């Protein structure tokens, strides 16, 4: 157990400061963030070129070193030793809050394990900025970030969150948004969802709708900029089904399809889900549904 008193200067000499930087609009830089970057021994930056521009804008004259996904292992031990020796180091990412979908999380874990101070400043964050304007529930939410881009792995990851009641938050490249939304529709059905892109920038856009609507939108629209995707959490029925994956076991194929239809699915989608649940060819379920329904 370790108790950190961040503002007791007799207890803090060397420390790591997690300093959020703007995700687009420079006016979102806080006074405290600027003061901290001006006062530390050095700044560890994911991209020193981008951070140089930020420092120039706020007249920050500090030593810059690189710390990113490809050099974190060789830099981590050195940074820990500098902090142990009494240096103060600010960690910044390309944009937003460091240690969120960011290699800084590993450094924070190492420092806290060694009882060295880590002091986090509040500031810009794309996930929370998108969430509070989404119109989706904010009382419970889960940040998932980027998911595997490979089709099978992505489908398995999304399926694992199907019964989760909280609003789900993802990051995605604009080049894969359409693929992601189609996979999300397969996994979650036609839930409410939101695309938030270019947050705080000139072309900030928030698109709210159902997953089906967003699939159509993303297919026809050329998206630019990193995107935050938010998906409504599971309904009570979906949570129940998730806790009991074989909820349909006592149903006939026809009743199985009808259960999905009554839950708001189109017949085509209900047939597809029934086939997936039962491990049956979709054409066989289609045949049973349309033949028996007309009897």
Can you give a write-up of this model?
The protein has 295 residues and is of the alpha/beta class. It has three domains: 15-124, Cobalt-precorrin-4 Transmethylase, domain 1 (3-Layer(aba) Sandwich), CATH 3.40.1010.10; 127-235, 2-Layer Sandwich (Methyltransferase, Cobalt-precorrin-4 Transmethylase, Domain 2), CATH 3.30.950; 246-294, no CATH class. It has twelve helices and ten strands. Strand 6 (141-145), helix 6 and strand 7 (167-172) form a beta-alpha-beta unit. Helix 10 crosses helix 11. The chain is elongated.
For the structure shown, list the relevant keywords:
five-stranded mixed β-sheet; single chain; 12 helices; 295 residues; five-stranded parallel β-sheet; Cobalt-precorrin-4 Transmethylase, domain 1
Count of individual beta strands: 10
CATH class of the largest domain: Alpha Beta
> Could you describe the largest sheet, including whether it forms a barrel?
5 strands, parallel
CATH topology name of the largest domain: Cobalt-precorrin-4 Transmethylase, domain 1
Would you tell me the structural class of the helices and strands? alpha/beta
Largest sheet: spatial strand order? 3-2-4-1-5
Which descriptor suits the 3D outline?
elongated
Average pLDDT level: 91
Name given to the CATH architecture of the largest domain = 3-Layer(aba) Sandwich
Radius of gyration from CA coordinates? 24 Å
Secondary-structure element pattern, one letter each: EHEHEHEHEHEHEHEEHEHHHH
InterPro entries: 4pyrrol_Mease (IPR000878), 4pyrrol_Methylase_sf (IPR035996), 4pyrrole_Mease_sub1 (IPR014777), 4pyrrole_Mease_sub2 (IPR014776), rRNA_ssu_MeTfrase_I (IPR008189), SAM_MeTrfase_RsmI_CS (IPR018063)
Keywords: Cytoplasm, Methyltransferase, rRNA processing, S-adenosyl-L-methionine, Transferase
GO molecular function, one term: rRNA (cytosine-2'-O-)-methyltransferase activity
Function: Catalyzes the 2'-O-methylation of the ribose of cytidine 1402 (C1402) in 16S rRNA.
